[in-house]
Amino acid sequence: MPNVAELRPAAEQGDPEAQFHLGSAYQSGTGVPEDDAEAVAWYLRAAEQGYANAQFALGFAYSNGEGVALDNAESLAWFLRAAEQGHDAAQWMLGTTYSWGLRGTPRDDIAAYMWLHLAVSQNDGHDRSPLDQLEARMSPAQIAEAQRLAREWREAHR
Fold first, then answer.
1. What does residue 65 show for φ and ψ, rounded to 5 degrees?
2. Distance CA 23, CA 37 (A)
3. Cα-based torsion angle of the residue sequence 128, 132, 134, 139 in order, rounded to the nearest 10 degrees
4. Mind spelling out the 3-state secondary structure of 72-117?
5. In the predicted structure, residue 1 carries a pLDDT above the cut 80
6. Which pairs with CB-CB distance under 8 Å and at least 24 residues apart come from 32-37?
7. Could you read off the pLDDT of 36-84 as tens digits, one per residue?
8. Domains located in the chain, CATH noted
């Protein structure tokens, strides 16, 4: 990550990648005092421009109440925006959220499987055990439906 003195001018001029990295610097206290609210402000500027890493970071911020009030609906919305852009970690987060009914969502095995399947198929570094647990409790018809939805998602997002 470039140093804060290099990032700030680009971030202030609207560069979403610089805004994201500046937010990360504030979140970790790297080169600036740690300030979660300032981190969220920079993440938001980048996320509103469609920067998926910033959208994912905002999902975590709202999920944990770091720099903002804890807000499960807002957390889920930001994770979804990142996941829709193909952000595999956001897809994995949505999958686990739907699998266990976290963040105020009802459990939805088909949606969980779809998102986890998309994440794992993009990045084999993701823990596959939530997907395996889903397969054990889902019917073959449910798995087929989730796989169909994942295929349709991939086709729509090429």
1. 65, 40
2. 9
3. 140
4. HHHHHHHHHHHHHCCCHHHHHHHHHHHHHCCCCCCCCHHHHHHHHH
5. no
6. 32/4, 35/67, 36/61, 36/66, 36/67, 37/67, 37/68
7. 999 999 999 999 999 999 999 999 999 999 999 999 999 999 999 999 9
8. 1-82 (1.25.40.10), 86-158 (no CATH)
